[in-house]
Amino acid sequence: YEQAIRLAPDDVNLYVPLTRLLVLKGRPDEAVDWGEKGVDVAPESAPAWAVLGLAYDWVGRVPEAIEACLRAVELDPAYAEAYAYLAEAYTDDGRVEKGLEAAQKALELAPRSVDAHRAYGYVLEHLGNWSGAIEAYQKALEVHPYLVHIYLDIGRNYLALADTASALQAFQRAVELDPKRPDALDQLGWTYFAIQDYELAQSYLEQAIEADPNYAPAYGHLATTYWVRRNYESAIPNFEKAIDLAYQAARRKAYGFSITVESAQEPLLYPSPDVALEGELVWGNEQRTRLAATLEPSTFLEGKERAGGRLSLDVVSGRYILSAHGLLALPADQVYVGWFHGLERLDGTSFSTGPLPLATDGSVEFEGTAEPVRGPRIEHFYTLGLCYFYMARCEWAYPLFDAALQIDPQEPNALEGIRLCQEAEGTPVPTPTP
User: Fold this and answer.
1) Which three-class secondary structure string do you get for 41-85?
2) How many CB atoms lie within 10 A of CB 65?
């Protein structure tokens, strides 16, 4: 498709299938880029808007996904895939009933659409109707029997029904169809882990990592196979890699940056509406390791055309560099704060730079690290902490327990880990009052 687009860059019919294929191959970031190019080429194309909505949904930009799908419906009310992708986005937004309506509409318009059946299954899955979801996914396979992602969907629902044997069959079929697909290998390995076949689980999980050395779930699962066998030395680097890759994946979802005016006395939880500068984050290099935004004046600096700035974020290391100019002086009780849109702290609040140092000439030069951010699984934090406890390294365990408690202040494993470390160090452990 990419070669064809080079020959015919104005043919939207090439952008649509390429975007969809990238999504289903597990490359949604690239899908967003191609989807946006497709909309630029054909802004009145319902398929282009619909598949862009699908891509947005898979990178977590759910409100934009819904908006794009609704635009597709507006352009062509009879385009079934627009309703199918809308159903998935509504479901991810927690509006499952609206998702069900959209999925049913998609099936009504195109009873033989693979995407319509998949969307219907996805909605049923989120309603807890796993048997119904499996039936819907199987109908999708009747139309197209070689879709790996559908077998993964089926296997996931069999696991929800505690039918491990059928789940294994589904995942094995997915691996047969695409032996180098990391998520298929990972799911197969993790299912073998569930039946305590740790050696076979380890084999498939290692194959998943070999297929994609940046596939975070496989590292976490592999680490867990070592953890249950008390091989803490091998578990530790794999948990650390899983956490680091999850941080990277979270940073890749950042889509904008803004500088707002905030109260110096209030906690910095969410950005205020007083926006001074803002800009969209886009890829700054071909390797997709750096996001960059050109910052332009917004409501608070309306009329100040000379104000502006630049933000660069290294998604691998998390380091960012901010440069701004033309900012107005503020009262002593106010500060400028930078916000990464699409990034959250571990506790779910918006990720910010904290108060920015404003020079007398209205400029800001600031560097920081976008970490920790919400993304890694909570069990990876506390289990890695427990690994360090058993290795007599509580000084490394405490920050991990703390990270888990930022996600869930009542996480019992993290609290127990702290108690164990305090007990091992001879620190008095508070006894609960009756």
Assistant:
1) HCCCCHHHHHHHHHHHHHCCCHHHHHHHHHHHHHHCCCCHHHHHH
2) 25
Q: Where are the beta strands (DSSP E) in 356-415?
A: 364-369
Sign of CA dihedral 355, 357, 362, 367: negative
Contact 261, 245 (CB under 8 A): no
CATH of 181-252, one of 1.25.40.10, 3.30.379.10, 1.10.390.10, 3.10.450.50: 1.25.40.10
Domain boundaries, the chain: 2-180, 181-252, 255-369, 378-425
Nearest to 59 by CA among 219, 187, 211, 250: 250
Q: How would you label 282-319 residue by residue, b for 16+ Cβ within 10 Å and e otherwise?
A: ebbeeeeebbbbebebbebbeebeebbbbbbbbbbbbe
Query: Quick one: which of 163, 155, 159 has its CA closest to 137?
Result: 155
Burial of 25 (0-12, 13-18, 19+ CB in 10 A): middle
- Residue 430 has a pLDDT of 57
| Per-residue model confidence (pLDDT) at position 15 | 86
Q: Provide the 10 A C-beta neighbour count for residue 372.
A: 20
How much is the pLDDT for 396? 98
Question: What is the residue whose two structure tokens read 């990464």?
Answer: 340
0.90 exceeded by pTM: no
- Give me the phi and psi of 246, to 5 degrees please: -65, -40
Q: Does the bond joining 217 to the residue before it have cis omega, within 30 degrees of 0?
A: no
Residue stretches of the chain with pLDDT short of 70: 1, 5, 7, 302-303, 428-434
**28: which 2 tokens?**
């949604």
Cα–Cα distance for residue pair 400/410, rounded to 1 Å:
14
- What's the CA gap between 168 and 189, in Å, rounded? 9
- For the chain, report the end-to-end CA distance as a whole number of angstroms: 68
Cβ 281 vs Cβ 251: under 8 Å: no
Residues paired with 309 in a beta bridge: 295, 324
181-252 shares the fold of 2-180? yes
CATH topology of domain 2-180: 1.25.40
Calpha distance 226→387 (Å, rounded): 10
Question: What is the pLDDT at residue 305?
Answer: 72
DSSP β-ladder status, 282-283 and 256-263: unpaired
